[in-house]
Amino acid sequence: MSAYSSKLLEQAVDELSKLPGIGRKTALRLALHLLQGSVDDVEKLSDSLVKMRKDIRHCRICNNISDQEVCMICSNPRRKNSVICVVEDIRDVMAIEKTSQFNGLYHVLGGIISPMEGIGPNDLTFDLLVERLSQNEISEVILALPATIEGDTTSFYIYRKIKDFKVLITTIARGVAIGDELEYADEITLGRSIIKRIPYEKAVNG
Amino acid sequence: MSAYSSKLLEQAVDELSKLPGIGRKTALRLALHLLQGSVDDVEKLSDSLVKMRKDIRHCRICNNISDQEVCMICSNPRRKNSVICVVEDIRDVMAIEKTSQFNGLYHVLGGIISPMEGIGPNDLTFDLLVERLSQNEISEVILALPATIEGDTTSFYIYRKIKDFKVLITTIARGVAIGDELEYADEITLGRSIIKRIPYEKAVNG
Q1: Domains of chain A (ranges plus CATH)?
Q2: Mean pLDDT of the B149-169 span
C-alpha cells in the first residue's frame, strides 16, 4: 500500500511536487489545504492557471509577457521609445519598474546564454533586438543582465552583435549596495568598486 | 499600471499566493515556471486538483481521506480492528503508517480542540468515535495527539467521553527523542521524562 490513503490525493501531490521548490511534504500540505477549502476556490485556482498558460502572449516588440499583441509598456506613448533596457526575464522588468527610475522600453531575452543549462544564442531573442535597432531610431541600449559569468558572457555577445549600430551601449552600475557596510560586501564587489571609483561630485550630483 | 504586464499572470499569482506558505514572490516564480512548460502540464496539474477536491471522500468508519466509502486501512482484513489510534489529521496517519509499528485502525478527528482557531468539539468527529466504541468490540483506544495544550485538552475531552466503555485508553510515550543528546532536549520534555521514568528492563525489552 502506498503512503497515501487516496489515489486522488497522491496524484495531486505528484503534480504539485513537480513545481520548483515544492517538495512532497509541502505539496501534501497544499493539497490538504485545498481539500479543506471549497470546490469553487480550487476551480478558481486551476482555471486561472490554465487560462494564463493558454491565453498569455509575448509582446511582439519586446518579448515581455502580455495579454495583447503589444505589451502595456511598448504601447504606452509616454515612454521614451529610443532607449531599450535589455533584461533576462519578466521578473527583471518588474524589479526595474518598481524603482520608477526608468522610463524607456525593455527587451526581454527570455534567459541568458548558459552552456550548462543548454541555452545557446538561438534560444534567446537576440535577432529581435537587432531587428528593433535596425528598424527604429534607438539612441541607447542598457544591458541590465545578472552580474554573473553567464550574464557577462551574454552582455558581451550582445555588445558584439550591436556595436556597429550608431547607439550608446551602457550597462547598469555595479558596486557596494546602498545601505551596506563595507565589511559585509563581498571581496570581488568591493575590490571592483575601488577600481571603478568615480569622481565624488559625479556620485553626489548624479 | 500594476507591476504585472499581464492581467492573466496577475490573476494566477493572486490565486497561487492564497496557498499557505506561498508569498507573492514564490507565486510569481511558480507561475513563470508553468508558463515555460507545456499546456498539457498545466492541465494535468489543474485537473488533478479539481478532481481531488470533487471526488475525494472521507471513510465513513474512521474519517480518513479515501477514494471509496471505506478506506484502504479500514477495509484491510489483516489489520487488527479491535485497536483504534486517534489522530488529529491524515498526516499523522501517514507518519504512523511509515513506522510500520501499528497494525490497528485509525480514527481521524480532522483537527483538535482549539478555542483560538474557533474549533470546538462539534467540529470534530468525537460522536463517530463513540459510535464505533458502542457498536464494535474495541479493546484499546490509543490517543496519539500533539504534545501541546490543545492536544492534551482534546485527549482529556476524549477520555471523559469514552471512559465508561470497557476499553483500555492509552497515550503514546513522550520523552527524549531517540538519538537525541540530553543537553539539547528542552527542559519540559527532559523534566517530564525523569518524572515518568520506567524500569530499565522494561525499556530494553519493550
Answers
A1: 7-55 (1.10.8.420), 78-205 (3.40.1360.10)
A2: 92
